[in-house]
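Input for the complex:
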Amino acid sequence: MIETVLFYILAAALIGFGLMVITRTNPIASAMAMVGAFAGLAGLYAMLNARFLSIIQILVYAGGIMVLVIFVIMLLNLEPEDLQRMRAKGFVVLLALIGVGAAIVSPMLFCVIPNKDWANGSVSPEFGSMASVGAKMFADHLFPFEILSLVLLTAVVGALVLAKRKL
Amino acid sequence: MNSIPLVHFLYLAAMLFGVGVFGVLARKNAISVLMGIELMLNAVNINFLAFARYWNWNSLTGPVFVVFVITIAAAEAAVALAIIISIYRHLRTANVDDAHYLRG
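Predicted:
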């Protein structure tokens, strides 16, 4: 019961913060709403037994990516865009498209997902812990992990080349 | 935990993804567009974790893949912000409508 209430509170906070991200005209206000959305996401991850990932979400997203974004917002000294100049026509078309898409996809979700007996699916206490995720990553997914380090290196070099005034 | 149906997580993720798409297509500020993309990536992560928890609950592939997605998102944010700084340096604006030199 309490989990259901918590889920809906977190979901409402997440969608509310998400809407704030895309409706605030001030970029700093958007970034702050984004931090709130990441906190809600971390709570949802913890509800899904993914403890390690909920901490990683706060550390990497709220602590790393959003700090970078806020740095760039302050560096660029952007003035708030006025909402009147947003693409109102595109808005209406897009809302209609999303509505139609959701109406088509949602019954398919109910058909495709087999009615598995969730209640018996008890998860081991080790499910989302750092040790179990790490063991899985380094045992079965070692090669993608190594490729990922190459991706990060490329991104670092690429960002430097793009942002530096003179090489 | 089992009181919440899987479909509710899927609906939540779909709504968040919709919000992200909306932000990407409606905002003019390049940094807000980037934040919309981050919202979409996080919606995908909710789906990964929900299916890992509900459907295939002895496999940890879902959480591992979410770690990969977060890493890619960080790399993407760094490169995108570098591009935005570069555009701002040339055009003195971060409006995505003004950066149309590649449109041909």
